[in-house]
Each structure stands twice: as structure tokens, then as C-alpha cells.
């Protein structure tokens, strides 16, 4: 008589999920407490990385505004000590360089033209002020802001009006637009006053005129030449584009100078790296806290459910089935906590950024991988208790009931 082969014990995936979910759902209080530990870990990860990213974005924006991502392209004097003019096509060519965000152009100002409060001030009393000639794109390139009034547009750039730098307005005693100043023997209306331009100090002490007005009103031969091109790079890319700017501005010419604020650019890079390291360190601590909570919960769960384990082993469940079941429960607890923690952490980071008046930055990679990280951490934390449950003898487990 031939003996029939023993049936192989199998655990379908749907059965595994159902059994694991029953273990989670049948103990709501313990599930809530275990998930809370993971939720706090993921919430800490999301909130801390979000707050660090917001602080980082604010700091880098401040450094960029100060000139960390700014380059100034100017003409270099030739053999006769006279600056070789930049080609008029230079701004368009520079704008096409990969990594350039904005380009602003200053043109050559007429010589011996100064700004005075009235026509009664002696010509020698220049008060240390100068006249500059700008195109409308300058304001965006240097990231300057207006304290009051308006900047040049296509209409006002051809009119006898001026925008005063912060220092120039203070020295002239002008506090609001609508007043007028005496420039080059003519009256000019003040249409705007700039806030301090940071490290672009030459703008603070200038009365700025529109480029079209100057070209149409002054007969000097050098009027209309490009005196300086301010290049605003995309965040963190100033070092990449600085070396390409001379050839872009004037191909083949050695008479081009590019100045960058190297110290600020270095400070920006250092701050970026340091804040990234801090964010990763805080995230690691938060995840460790969540893993400890999961491990503790699963150890207690195995001890409490020895009777269930013994009964299932007696009915044919294999050790691997028991291990996978408890491992799946740990991962499910972690997933619940991970999703809840992501929502909680994102909310906390948003509130902190709003209160601090900083840009709200939730790193996309953190939001995308947080649930997966939670599951991985939960599975690793539950691995030892799951293996312990799998090694329980059915007889001893049933005796413990």
C-alpha cells in the first residue's frame, strides 16, 4: 500500500495580510501606542528636515540676495588704458548660458554729470553721489527692492525721471517719490527710491537714469556703451558659470573681467553642506526612536500570544509562516505610523516656517520615502521578535496558555 505524500502547508499572500491585519486590528490600544512611536519618529524626521530645509532656503536666499550668486562682467582697459567696450550682443549671449537666471545691464553714464538737490548748490558739492544709467532688467538681476515708488519700464526709461539709491535719497533729503532733483543742468522727477542694495554699494549712492533717455539726450560718444553686466546665477551655480562668462560676453577677447563674491559663495556652499548633514543626523535619531518602540511592542506581543502561536503550529503552520506573520504585523504598524507621522510632521514644519516667516520647504524625497522608511525600520525592528516567535515549540507554547 502506497502512502500518499503529506500535504504541504502553504500560506497565501491574502491569508498573510488578513492574519496580520487581525493581529493589528484586534488590539487597537496597543496598535495605537506602537504606531504612535513610529508616527513620532517619522513626524520628527519630516518636521526636522522640513524646518532645516526652510532655514536652509532662507539662509541661502539671504546669501544670494547679498550677492553669493552674483557675477559682474565689466570691460578691461586695453593697451592704451581705455576700457574696450563690451559688444552690444553680450547680454543676449550671456542670457543663453546654462545656469544664468537673470541679466541686468548698466550703460556708460555721461562724464561730469552729477546730481544735486537744487540748481543753487555749487557744482563742487557733489555729496559723493554719482549718476548711473540702467536698463529695466537691472532691478531683477540685482534683486533690489523699492522702498517706495516704481522702477523703470518701457515708457519711463525714455523720460527725464530718476530712481534714487537709498544713500543718495538720504543725502539729498528726499523721502518720497514726486520730488525733483537737478542733474546735468536739468530737472528730473523722482519716480522711485530703492531699499539698500546690499553689496552693490555703487547703486546705493547713485541717481539712476533710464537708458533710452540718456542715449537720446546726450551727445557723448561713449553713451550707450555697456559699462557693467550683472549676472544672477541659479542657486548654487555661480562657480559653474563664472568661467564661461568672459567667452560668452566677448568671444576671443582678453579684455573682459568677471568679478564674483567668492567669500559669500564659499559661505553659501559651507552652509548648504552643514545644514544637509544636520538634517540627516536628526532624521537618524528620530528613526532610531521609532525602531525601539516597534521592537518593544513586538516583543510584548510575542509573549502575550504564545498560546495562539502554539495552536497555529499544532494545526500545521510552519515556523516561516509564524515569522512572516509577525514581521508583516510589525511592518503594518510601522506603515500606519509612517503615514500619520508624515502628515503630522508636514503640518508642524509648515507652522514653524509660517511663524518664522520663512519659505515652506518639505523635501520631496523625504515625503516620498518616509512611509517606505517606516516600513523598513518596522520590519527590521520586528525581525528579532518574529524569529523568536517562529522558534517557539508548539508544546511549550500551549502549556504557557
Descriptive notes:
There is one protein chain. The chain is of the alpha+beta class. It has 2 domains: 13-63 and 269-399, no CATH class; 69-261, no CATH class. Helices cover 53% and strands 15% of the residues. It contains 14 helices and 11 strands. It has helices at residues 13-25, 28-66, 90-95, 138-142, 166-172, 201-204, 211-217, 238-242, 245-249, 262-304, 306-314, 319-355, 364-390, 394-399, and strands at residues 70-75, 100-107, 115-116, 130-134, 146-149, 161-164, 180-183, 186-194, 206-210, 226-233, 256-260. Strands 1, 2, 3, 4, 5, 6, 7, 8, 9, 10 and 11 form an 11-stranded mixed sheet that branches. Helix 1 (13-25) crosses helix 12 (319-355), helix 2 packs antiparallel against helix 10 and helix 10 runs antiparallel to helix 12 (319-355). The longest helix is centred in the last third of the chain and has 43 residues, at 262-304. The radius of gyration is 35 Å and the shape is elongated. The relative contact order is 0.20.
